[in-house]
Design a protein that fits this description.
The chain is mainly alpha-helical and 422 residues long. It contains 18 helices and no strands. The longest helix has 31 residues.
């Protein structure tokens, strides 16, 4: 049972999410420079493939991290899990920023980079879902959609902060400087950001929802809630493919497919994410009035029918058309991101909530989300079709649509498995 819903608690949860995702997202935006620093000099596509390959390895650790941090959250409390996850992000982020490249270390450089990304992926695996759960459990039933969306905005805001930092650096530093050492600055600053998040999370107050002594949330989840895990994983498909193609991979796509300068690509992406934030909040609030399922179903239908036209628009020569194309995706992605977090929390009993949501969500985000930029880069290179990522989004939208159909509408009702509603 939640202990209250003070704005300070909600803000602390969202701010911690901002700090965490700033660290993790910076890698995606500087994938091209990282590929040049840590891999042998090959063609540019090969270097981006290698960099996104390590990006995928970090994501593949998310299910393991979700199981670990989720277990901690269910057994020892949400605050302990959140403090652990943000601390596990800060040090590897700093080390990526100071790690010597391939020309200095040779093959140990990409190996060390891979290990650091694995540790970061372990942390992120439980961070997002546990923070969302913490916030929604503190919210009154009539505002759970809004509060869940605010938590999601913490993640989007963190990625936006990484994008804006990249845009600022590429605008003020020469291109040669950025590719040689300028890309390291956000990673070094990430240590300070991560430490701030650690101290924020360490002082959060919490009343545990259930006594975790003598039980294993992970075993209980896997043995008795397998079908729920499958539905949660399917629901997360559009989130995984849509978000990481449209707001992470797209920065590299605009450079490779359209020949847009890095600074302009980051500026376009940052503008779209600024618009995405109020869209997410508005859709979360709307789900408190209309329900979660109608908005999720509408989001996936819209994404399916608009994917190809919007990617075609982003492939035009004029920067304004490119911007309009990405802004077109903001509506469907915002509808989905603003609604999915609260629905997941509402569907899972309190005793296994952190574990089940973290596993169901992170299996898809880790495997599919982590591999999506790599798969999209390979598809474009292999087929010569710059619109290939649109087809991936369409498939993901269909899967999430079918998964959403299988959930019951619980908006406004007490959280399942809680003795007393928040």
């Amino acid at each position: 049972m939640a202990v209250g819903n003070s704005p300070r608690v909600v803000a602390a949860g969202a701010i911690g999410n901002v700090l965490e995702w700033y660290d993790f997202a910076v890698y995606g935006y500087f994938a091209t420079a990282i590929g040049q620093a840590f891999f042998p000099k090959e063609d540019p596509v090969a270097q981006v493939l290698a960099a996104f390959g390590i990006f995928a390895v970090g994501f593949l650790m998310r299910p393991i991290g979700g199981a670990l941090v989720g277990h901690i959250g269910d057994k020892y409390g949400r605050r302990v899990a959140l403090t652990f996850s943000v601390a596990a992000m800060a040090i590897p982020t700093f080390l990526v920023g100071v790690l010597p490249g391939y020309q200095v270390l040779g093959m140990p450089a990409p190996i060390a980079l891979t290990i650091l990304r694995m540790v970061q992926g372990l942390s992120v695996g439980g961070e997002y879902t546990t923070s969302i759960i913490f916030m929604v459990e503190h919210a009154p039933p009539s505002r759970r959609g809004l509060i869940g969306a605010m938590g999601c905005c913490g993640a989007v805001g963190g990625i936006l902060l990484g994008s804006a930092t990249g845009a600022l650096l590429t605008a003020v530093l020469p291109a040669d400087t950025m590719s040689s050492w300028g890309w390291r600055i956000p990673f070094v600053l990430g240590l300070l950001v991560g430490l701030a998040g650690f101290f924020l999370r360490r002082h959060l107050a919490e009343a545990p929802g259930s006594d975790g002594e003598g039980r294993s949330p992970l075993r209980e989840t896997v043995q008795h809630h397998g079908r729920l895990l499958v539905r949660l994983a399917g629901l997360s498909m559009f989130n995984a493919v849509g978000f990481y193609l449209l707001f992470v991979y797209i920065v590299s796509w605009l450079q490779l497919a359209d020949g847009i300068a890095p600074a302009h690509a980051l500026a376009i992406n940052s503008t779209s994410m600024v618009v995405l934030l109020p869209c997410v909040v508005a859709m979360g609030a709307l789900s408190d009035r209309l329900g979660r399922k109608p908005i999720l179903l509408a989001a996936t239908v819209l994404a399916f029918v608009s994917a190809v036209p919007l990617f075609w628009l982003m492939h035009q020569d004029q920067r304004l058309l490119v911007q309009l194309g990405q802004l077109g995706f903001v509506l469907s992605v915002g509808m989905f991101l603003g609604t999915q977090p609260t629905l997941m929390v509402e569907e899972v009993p309190a005793a296994i909530r952190c574990t089940a949501v973290a596993l169901g969500y992170n299996v898809t985000l880790g495997v599919v989300g982590g591999l999506s930029p790599l798969a999209a880069t390979w598809l474009v290179s292999r087929t010569g079709d710059d619109l290939s990522p649109a087809y991936m989004i369409m498939v993901a939208a269909v899967i999430s649509f079918l998964a959403a159909l299988g959930f019951r509408e619980r908006s406004g009702q007490p959280l399942e498995g809680d003795a007393v509603s928040a």
